[in-house]
Amino acid sequence: MRETPLSNCERTFLLQAITDRKRIDGRQTYDYRNIKITFGTEYGCCIVELGKTRVLGQVSCELVAPKMNRPTEGILFFNLELSPMASPAFEPGRPSELLVKLNRLLERCLRNSKCIDTESLCVQAGEKVWQIRVDLHLLNHEGNIIDAASIAAVAALCHFKRPDVSVQGEEVTVYSPEERDPVPLSMHHMPICVSFAFFQQGTFLLVDPSEREERVMDGLLVIAMNKHREICTIQSSGGIMLLKDQVLRCSKVAGVKVAEITELIQKAIENDKKARKEGGKFGFAESLPEQKITSLKIDKSSVDTSDFKGEAKKIISKSEPPSDAVSKPVVWAPGTAQIGEGIGNAWGELEESEDEDDDADIASVSPESHKVIKKPAKHTSKDIVLSDSEEDDVIILEPESKTEASLPPSVSAEDKDKSPVSKTSTKKKKKRAAR
Amino acid sequence: MMEVAEEPGLREIGCEHSLLSRPDGSATFVQGDTSVLAGVYGPAEIKVSREMHDKATIEVMVRPKVGLPAIQDKNHEQLIRETCESVILGTLHPRTSITIVLQVINDGGSILSCFLNAACMAMMDAGLPMNAMFCGVTCALDDDGQLIIDPNTKDQKESRTVLTFAIESSEKKVLTISSRGAYSPAEVSISLYQSCL
Amino acid sequence: MAAGFKTVEPLEYYRKFLKQNCRPDGRELSEFRTTTINVGSITTADGSALVKLGNCTVMCGIKAEFTNPPIDAPNKGYIVPNVDLTPLCSSRFRPGPPGEEAQVASQFIADVIDNSQIIQKEDLCIAKGKLAWVLHCDLICLDYDGNLLDACVIALVAALRNVRLPSVQISEDTGLAQVQLSSKSPLNILKSPVSTSFAVFDDTYIIVDPTDEEETLATGLLSIVTDEDGKLCTMRKPGGSALSPERLQDCISRAVSRHKEVQTLLDEVLLSVKTQ
């Protein structure tokens, strides 16, 4: 399904509003939308909401062989998916240009900035290392995917704990969470992307563009930074020329925003930790809004199961018991046997389809010819096999009068049975039979 | 979290409607630790190659949390699609597409029934015409024939049989069955009767 | 006249027959098509079978190969079923990677193998943690005429019972496997599951063994797999018409009696090969 295009008046309205330094959702130029981070019951699972944009992050790990050229380093793998749920324009299958761009940016922001200590992921040099896989799913697209995705990735990585391992000689033991507490990843810093949208050849700029604003923007500048004000990645796209001052001003704004977001992530992690420690409730089920008309929660409920056995017996007793009558299979040749009186196949059978119950007159066909038809391999040398490619039917003819005699009635049977056999083909068969 | 209850019971259930802004209908369904997010688009425009002249084309996508959809997800997709097809009045919207996307948020057992419930909720939220609602129920039978409704992952692993049913609301009849493990016919009826309740 | 009516109103055409408790091909509602089995059809495979249910034809070939056992279960082997629906069997299938129906069928067969415990996977292990058999079960549909699942399950069981594996010894000196082709032994087949499929018409008529035509017209499908103890291994009903528990029980009864038929058929066939 295609995205509904933006109408011209909507476009001019949006641009006009931006020139008047107003945004349609009432925010100021440098305002972010509300950010909400919720964690799941598993380690390394989180949902980040940036306004209405929603990203699900999940970190998982696996023991793998390291790369040849980096035998002592763990492997990081990032994958952002634009789920068709997020927008009707996203279709499953081939990755779109946007997706490739976002994935590369995310990789640059998180892997190349060395935010995770990959050497600590090594279990056995050259043999086994942890592969950390970060899966991000965009669930709702309301603009600024990259910021939401980077927050989700960082939050999930901070939240994640991998199972503890011990190495004794060659033997690697992985401990379950019950045996030993899982260990968190060692994070050096938290790089977070901040997006700036530029309008009117760079005269106006907005932080955290919404989906509508993204559609009318001229260019986009993404700065990935950590709270120490170190720039990890910077990318400008859309083909706008930016002045030095503009970039510097953006980086200053980014510094402030990153500090705020980092604090938020840390707070969310703290809260989750506290809830887990106190044995309280956590996870997505708890994040459902309590007082909202669109949501409903039912506590654990028991189901009355006292009378089910009686009811089940009643049903079984009512139904007929399985019949014991078993028809005797017919063995045609070693390794080939047949059962059933229903219709046979239309493959090898001539028009004398003896298995059809409705053709009483055909029932008299002798079992000998029956055999020949069922198993062409058992033919005597006298048999002629003709195939009629037009009909996908194999016609086997026996130069015996018996077969000829039973031909006409069964032709009519076929007429009734299958999709109509045209007259010409019937004629053809007769001709062949005559030959 | 959830202890194996002496008497069979459901885990806590939660549901939220229209939580996403882009899809025409969306819902999240939570059964204990299991949680699924569903989004529905449609009836909407469709590619000519896939359109059906007499009814809407229903498409179901199951998205796992990690990695690409596996063969089991395809199986679930087909089961859910056929279930939805039987309740949606597709003939009211010929030559359109109805897309249902199901995202696993957390798998804590009974995932198929959670998929079904989330899909049904999202379809209601989208306002699709349906002749009945349906609900998914998963039952597990352990070695001594004890029945567990809405099993979690641990129960599912330990039990010998896991059955999932979809039951429609108007006549309480069975729409879908999917099962794992060997069991006797009597046990099916028992489970069925359970899930009807 | 009838042919024209059938083309224009196929469903109405069927209903007329069903009202009289019969089907256009002359069968009764609970009657199967002729089931033909041929085992050992492929000489190059370790086990094979060809099954025909009326026109629906499925060929199953089993190839055994050596492999390393899985790390988490060092004393087990693998069974890998794969259902191929090629353009050969029906025009509805396109060449290329397997479509949804083929994947679903493969999953169904895998479920049947797992659920029925047809083989102890431990039997496929040759040396613990070192060497095991992997059985590639390739099911190829040659003619698609409905009720694919039933045909596939019968073909699979027949082929598995036809498998003869050479004995393998691991020599203690070299640690290499030595295959003795002269002594071959069959697999230890514990169960023989049989699938029975039903189609529901207009929520009222239940017919067994639907043809392709019937499957497309039907409002619901149901497959029940039973084993010889009358236990159900797999039930699969993907949506469609709703059924009451009572109707379901009737279907299960029919499946159990069908199992007996197919069971004797399978026994006869395999016996005939042995006595040859």
Outline of the structure:
The complex is a heterotrimer of chains A (435), B (197) and C (276). Helix content of chain B is 26%, strand content 35%. Chain B has 197 residues and is α+β, with helices and mostly antiparallel strands.
Structural descriptors:
heterotrimer; A: alpha+beta; 6-stranded mixed sheet; 10 helices; globular; disordered C terminus; C: alpha+beta; 6 helices; 31% helix; 32% strand; phosphoprotein (chain B); nucleus (chain B); ExoRNase_PH_dom2_sf (chain B); cytoplasm (chain B); RNA binding (chain B)
Description:
The complex is a heterotrimer of chains A (435), B (197) and C (276). Chain A is of the alpha+beta class. Chain A is built from ten helices and 20 strands. Chain A has helices at 8-19, 97-110, 145-159, 211-216, 244-277, 308-318, 367-374, 401-405, 407-417, 423-434; strands at 35-39, 45-50, 53-64, 75-82, 122-124, 128-140, 161-162, 165-168, 171-174, 183-184, 192-199, 204-207, 219-225, 231-237, 295-298, 301-302, 330-333, 336-339, 384-388, 393-397. Chain A is globular, with a radius of gyration of 36 Å. Chain B is an alpha+beta fold. Helix content of chain B is 26%, strand content 35%. In chain B, strands 2-3-4-6-5 form a five-stranded mixed sheet, covered by helices on one side. Chain B has a four-stranded antiparallel sheet with strand order 8-7-9-10, sandwiched between helices. Chain C has six helices and twelve strands. Chain C has helices at residues 2-8, 10-19, 100-116, 148-162, 212-217, 245-275, and strands spanning 35-39, 47-53, 56-67, 78-84, 125-127, 131-143, 164-170, 177-186, 194-201, 205-208, 220-226, 232-237. In chain C, the strands form three sheets. In chain C, strands 1, 2, 3, 4, 5 and 6 form a six-stranded mixed sheet that branches. In chain C, strands 10-9-11-12 form a four-stranded antiparallel sheet. In chain C, strands 7-8 form a two-stranded antiparallel ribbon. Chain C starts with a helix and ends with a helix. Strand 15 of chain A pairs antiparallel with strand 2 (13-17) of chain B, so a sheet runs across the interface. Chain B: Keywords: Cytoplasm, DNA-binding, Exosome, Nucleus, Phosphoprotein, rRNA processing. Chain B: It is found in: Cytoplasm; Nucleus, Nucleolus. Chain B: GO terms for molecular function: DNA binding; RNA binding.
